[in-house]
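quick one before i forget lol
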Amino acid sequence: MVRVLRSAAGALLAALCAILFAVAPAAADTQKAEGVSGAEEPVVVVGFSGLLWRDITPENTPNLYYFLDSAAGANIVTRTVEETTCPSEGWLTIGAGQRAIDPTNGCQQMGAANWDGLADANRDSNYKAELGLLGDTLEGRDLAAIGPGGALALTDSGGEFTGEYRELGAIPGSVEGTDPYGSDPESGAAGAAFADVAENDLVAIDLGAIRYPGDELSPAGTQGEEFRPRGAIDKFLAAFKGTGAPPAEVVPQAAALDARFGAVMDAVDELAPDARILVVSVGDAQTAAPQLGFMSVREGGAGADGDQEHPVAGGELASSDATRQPGLVQLTDVFPTLVSWLEPDAPVLERVVGSQIQAGGGGSESGGGAARDGGARDRAVRDAGAEPADAPKSDELASERADSLISRLADDQERSENVRPFVGPFYVVVLAMASVAGVVALKLMRRRIGAPVPRGLSRFVAWVAALPVASLLINALPWWRFAVPGIALFVGIGLIAALIVAVAYMLPRNDKVQAPIAIIGAITAITLIVDVLLDSATSHYSLQLSSLLGTQPQVGGRFYGLSNASFAIMAAGLILAISYVAARLPKRAGIAALVATGIAVVIVDGTATLGADFGGPPALVLGFVLAGLLIYGVRLTPWWILGTLLAAGATSLLFSFVDYLRPATERSHLGRFIQTVLDGGGFDVVTRKLSQSLFGLPWWLAVIVFVLAGAIAILWWYRRTPRPASEPEHLGQLAWQGIPLLRHTTFPVIATLVFGMVINDSGVVIPAIGMTVAGLLWAAAALEHAGTVGRASA
């Protein structure tokens, strides 16, 4: 049997190598960016803060609305270092190509910057942003800035901006002491300023900011609030915060911003009709919680003659390789987009964290159309009247493509905004119910054999275990569109979990102990695997994105693949399901099932274009090997442990190396890790992850803790685990002897979750969430077994 398992392990590694290297060239070919080449068209980046897709209407913002008829759009993640982003931090991020912070000014009207202080603060931050990188990269190009934010983005690393500059004041209502309903004296100033600098290669325009009442920018030069980094409590409380309904003061500020944009576009259409235009929100309108912002891009002009070198992707979704989600980009994608347009061969593109924004990533709903003279339509709207609210609304000017794009992206934004404040309550409620159910089950399992067990308790425990996967499946339904989204969300999750439990206990006829928990585990694992596979093939958010258990796009973490929490429940459910199947098959068939499932899932989890998970594949290899050893009675020797750990580590490095073979601009974090190792920073990355996995302890202390914990676990396994041959004294021992699935999966699941915690940087989230599923399913099986024995002896 040992020989068979060794052969199976060798086959697993050989198959992984063969398949990965076979698909690597194809992946590299199919994933190449479709961004335009570095031609010599001028570039205009128009920035502002606080504008959302739901703010765009043909009545209040006609210029932005009709611009979409000849441009692609996306939600943009404006998150930088802190929970929300101030205007100066957004512009600094554009200039650095990395998340930047402004601890000196914060949310203050931008004025003269203390560049040395800003540079020092960012060097000391977790992201170590290199301020002025954009200015350095574009040295020798003709640059111009309108407004303080534009100058901040184009300032070089020495704190100097040598291009042309034109001042532009704040939007009324965005600064303390100003009236949002007052007239904007600089409504046409941005257009006149662009006319002065239109001959430059790049013009960065800061149109101003939209701010909620109570969160207005403090006047330039005043003493702002002292910067305080967020602690653990702040991060915890952030999961309970929402933004609420937008205040009425947003409407006049958005109209004023739109009028400024219209003036700029008049000048652009006249003086630089072939310009590439990037319109982007660089920050939030408030400090309560992060929000997705407005972003639109027009690659290739739409001049008066309609002659365009590059197609205009009107009404389509924009995307980037950094998010791989149609209709979603990051603020850090702006830097590589601008550099790719102006200096496509710049070496800096190989080490930036973002990716070039690509227009035409897929139709919003009805799909984008062919290129057209969007500029002419924009001008027609702007010429129709002086006030935005008076713009004509005739059918011939209405844009079905703009409506479709706005509807899709506003809906995505509403989903992300609605789910955010329920993340904290969901975790608290589920973990509380899991803890109570676990304690009750443990107490019952200490009763003598034959003691009564409450009927239905096993079903309730299984229902709690099904809540995590139900919280993902609910996103297949538009719960956020209900009148009371919170009620729709939690009631829907409860009903889906109940349906899963009903199916799990109704399908098996003869086995009501092991089969139901294997079915729930299989549903959990299959849901996530299918979600990952479909994510790259559809233009809509995956089940994990904007979910209670998965990832929040506005936070700017992970946008594709498997998150740490998702991996935890997938791994737990998968090991339970495949172990049940393998144990019921003939030995050779069972081993084949384990190996085949292991290869398939490890590839899905680890491939950069699918799961993109660095820590998952080695943890899965460990779990599958341990499950095979226990199912077939092979003794767990130190050599098996060492060999399994080496194979697990090699698996992760193999996926990373394959991703590293792709072009630098297309690599995920897997390939970038290899580049970091080659640059000499691998040790820092590994030690940082070790430290973060145990609440910030020194990395060497974390290593000692993990080694001791592993040794204690192995000793406990050999000396304290009840053996089937011993005489059971209470219900727990009886369950251990009578439920093979419990003996086969306890150690593999725990080892997988702990190993995943060590490699990833999410701390105890992986074992906590994973054990919520696996631990409760074990408890459900033990309670069902005890109830069956009790009824049989009655």
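fyi The first strand starts at residue 43 and ends at 49.
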